[in-house]
Design brief:
The chain contains six helices and 19 strands. It is α+β, with helices and mostly antiparallel strands and about 325 residues long. It has two domains: about 240 residues, Zn peptidases (Aminopeptidase); about 70 residues, RNA polymerase II/Efflux pump adaptor protein, barrel-sandwich hybrid domain (OB fold (Dihydrolipoamide Acetyltransferase, E2P), Beta Barrel), CATH 2.40.50. It has a 15-stranded mixed sheet that branches. It has a four-stranded antiparallel sheet with strand order 16-15-13-18, with no helix packed on it. Helix 1 links the parallel strand 4 and strand 5. The longest helix has 17 residues. The model has no long low-confidence stretch (mean pLDDT about 95). The structure holds calcium ion. Calcium ion binds next to loops.
């Protein structure tokens, strides 16, 4: 049955002009609600036959710039000001968002490792399957707003990947710069399978992500970057006729070319950062160290950068387990 239509329904008509604010009805039968439904907010604004931009937030439930900026956009945008269609899902993994967690508390799944999803799978897989089979075919451009979540903080950036389709890579690079974040990152993922990114890229469509801060909270500058960025994207693709808001500064292009840019903890310990995001680090220089508080004689272990560059990400919680990513280094493009 995995090739069947989604079990998620909606009253919204994606082909109709105008503004529709409503829900995706996700079946959620449970002990407390036998015929219960999870109501996922969705807004569709359409005016004629221009391009379709799909915006998603809270793919990870503890990342907040997306939900806030997209809720504002959904309220503010009116059909007579656009050409084309804007589809806004402010909380893609709604159960995770409501629980203030990265992963869904219903099935323990990571939305961004669940694509293309499954019609008869768990809640997260059913939502991913709906997006994959019903929304991505409508979209020309997909922007998925991430932040670092509770476990990381990042230099605010728009993010893309190297693509085998070089024409698509070039169009994505233009969108990355149009977003207007302080940094633009070309990222080599540790594990790209099952990501929304990969699903959209394989369809030959422009996919842009962001990393806009983190720590499970919002900041004044990162919300402003998100607010400006989503409008800049709509202007760039001709959906919004406003001229783009001027960027604070040109986007600094950086890349994470390989997995040597990631620094992982080799032991359980208490992580002491030695650099903050935005700082320059030399190859071999420790980005932080792990302390063993219960073993007073034991020396801390340094965690060296394997590459020189700029620290663009560091771990937020001090308590750290073997295998945790504690830092990511990027290099200027
Ligand atoms: Ca994320």
């Amino acid at each position: 049955m995995s090739d069947g239509r989604s079990r998620i329904s909606t009253d919204l008509d994606f082909g109709r002009d105008g503004k529709q604010v409503g829900y995706l009805n996700v079946p959620h039968s449970r002990d407390s609600s036998a015929w219960g439904t999870l109501l996922m907010p969705i807004t569709v604004i359409r005016n004629g036959d221009g391009p379709t931009v799909l915006f998603t937030g809270a793919n990870h439930g503890d990342e907040y710039e997306g939900p806030v900026a997209l809720s504002k956009l959904a309220r503010a945008l009116e059909p007579d000001r656009i050409d084309g269609r804007v589809i806004i899902l402010p909380a893609l993994n709604l159960p995770a968002f409501k629980a203030a967690r990265r992963l869904s508390p219903i099935d323990g799944k990571n939305m961004n490792r669940s694509f293309p999803g499954s019609r008869n799978g768990t809640m997260t897989e059913v939502i991913a399957h709906y997006v994959y089979t019903e929304l991505l075919p409508l979209a020309d451009v997909v922007v998925d707003l991430h932040s670092g979540g509770k476990s990381m903080t990042l230099l605010p950036c728009a993010v893309m990947h190297r693509l085998s389709d070089k024409a698509l890579e070039a169009r994505t690079m233009e969108a990355l710069q149009a977003f207007g974040a302080p940094a633009g990152l070309v990222l080599e993922e540790l594990d790209s399978e099952g990501m929304l990114d990969t699903a959209v890229e394989e369809m030959g469509k422009v996919f842009l992500s962001t990393e806009l801060g983190g720590g499970g909270t919002l900041s004044v500058p990162t919300v402003a970057i998100a607010d400006r960025g989503v409008r800049n994207i709509l202007s760039h693709f001709g959906v919004l006729e406003d001229t783009p808001a001027p960027s604070v500064e040109p986007t600094r292009l950086m890349e994470v070319p390989d997995t040597d840019c990631y620094v992982a903890a080799g032991h359980d310990g208490l992580f002491e950062p030695l650099f903050e995001v935005g700082d320059s680090v030399a190859a071999g220089q420790p980005v932080g160290r792990l302390h063993f508080i219960e073993d007073p004689h034991r020396q801390p272990v340094d965690l060296p950068a394997r590459r020189a560059g700029t620290l663009i990400c560091r771990r937020v919680p001090s308590e750290t387990e073997r295998g945790d990513c504690v830092a990511v280094i990027a290099q200027d493009l």
